[in-house]
Amino acid sequence: MSRSRSFISSTLAAAAVAVLASTPSLAHAQATQAGAAAKLDDPTIVAIFDAANQWDIQTGSLAEKKGSTKEVRDFGAMLARDHSAVLKSAKDLAKQLGVTPTPPRNFGMVKDHEDAMKQLDAAKGHAFDVAFLQHEIAYHQAVIDAANNTLVPSLQNQQVKDFVLKVAPNFAAHKLAAENLLAKINK
User: Fold this and answer.
1) Using CA atoms, how far apart are residues 66 and 119, in angstroms rounded to an integer?
2) Cα–Cα distance for residue pair 102/169, rounded to 1 Å
């Protein structure tokens, strides 16, 4: 596993699962999963979900500009478009329900995302394509794991829970598309 992929996977999963813990290690996140789930509330979960979508809009937009192949650029554009639609729908639902997204204190994922964007921005050509696709695979898996294991079980509002469950297959589809595209460009 590449350094970037390992970094993204472990930091996103750790931060999403153990969002209130002081250290973002995946092992710590898994060990404290049950405790973290009890501490999460709907506004915090909505903020985490919003951030996950915003960050994939940013990485997708970067790939749309920097991808060395049309397929990678098109995949980036699709991610930006799809996650923009999900983000808008989520914000509309939160507004309708009167839920104000409230990011967790010490939201370490912000720095992790900034670091990932710097790493991706520094890469060029085929190396960018590979790093971007590895990032997307790890990122989507981490979001899927966090949603299934911590975020969804912690949600109290059934409408928000239903919404997250409705869009969850899209995260899996994006991950699969990234895996397929990575396999194709690495032939």
Assistant:
1) 13
2) 25
**Chain segment 14-38, per-residue pLDDT in tens:** 334 333 222 233 333 333 343 444 4
pLDDT digits (tens, 9 = 90+) for 83-100: 999 999 999 999 999 999
Q: Are 59 and 120 in contact (CB under 8 A)?
A: yes
Tokens of 55: 């960050």
Ordered domains of the chain (ranges, CATH): 3-185 (1.20.1260.10)
The residue written with tokens 């695979």 in the block is 137
On whether the pTM is more than 0.85, the answer is no
Contact between residue 97 and residue 43 where contact means Cβ atoms under 8 Å apart: no
List helix spans (H) across 98-187. Answer: 109-122, 125-146, 152-154, 158-185
- Token pair belonging to 43: 């506004």
